[in-house]
Amino acid sequence: MALPYRGRCACGQVSYEASAAPYRMVNCHCRDCQRASGSGYAALCAFNKDHIVLKGEVRYHRSISDRGMAIDRGFCPTCGSPMVIRPQAQPDAFYVFAASLDDPALHKPTANIWTKSAHPWDHMDPALPRLETTTPPAPPSR
């Protein structure tokens, strides 16, 4: 894997760098991710929060997940690009939107999650597992 992982918003005001590879990569089809991404799903890379350095001002919007937990979604206040997610259910996790990676080809999803919310027009990779919901794995130890 190429290290470090780097990414930025559309205008470049917000950027990040990860010093370790993500511990999980998924395509999330929950309604909240659909709304946040403006698409059928959000392609996400999960990092341990201690492995990410975020630069620039990020604004957060809090929503409540289907599991009843808070999710803070960060975006660039200038261009509106969705950038990061801080899930209350995983306090050591920091998710980035794969589209924000400088090299989005680094995103290698291992599963489609929350597929119970997926739309009929959303054609998923048949080689990937489809999970109706998900229980997120804990980030690896620091």
General description of the model:
With 142 residues, the chain is mostly beta strands. The protein has one domain (5-117): Metal Binding Protein, Guanine Nucleotide Exchange Factor, Chain A (Beta Complex), CATH 2.170.150. It is built from one helix and ten strands; from the N terminus they run E-E-E-H-E-E-E-E-E-E-E. The protein has one helix at 31-37, and strands spanning 5-8, 15-18, 24-28, 42-48, 52-55, 59-64, 70-75, 82-87, 93-97, 111-113. The chain has a seven-stranded mixed beta sheet with strand order 6-7-8-9-4-3-10. Strands 1-2-5 form a three-stranded antiparallel beta sheet, with no helix packed on it. A hairpin with a 5-residue loop joins strand 6 and strand 7. The longest helix has 7 residues, at 31-37. 35% of the residues are buried. The mean pLDDT is 91.
Record keyword descriptors for this entry.
1 helix; 142 residues; 10 strands; 7-stranded mixed beta sheet; mainly beta; Metal Binding Protein, Guanine Nucleotide Exchange Factor, Chain A; 3-stranded antiparallel beta sheet
Give a brief description:
The protein is mainly beta and 142 residues long. It has 1 helix and 10 strands.
SSE layout and pairing:
Layout lengths: L4 E4 L6 E4 L5 E5 L2 H7 L4 E7 L3 E4 L3 E6 L5 E6 L6 E6 L5 E5 L13 E3 L29
Parallel strand pairs: 3-10
Antiparallel strand pairs: 1-2, 2-5, 3-4, 4-9, 6-7, 7-8, 8-9
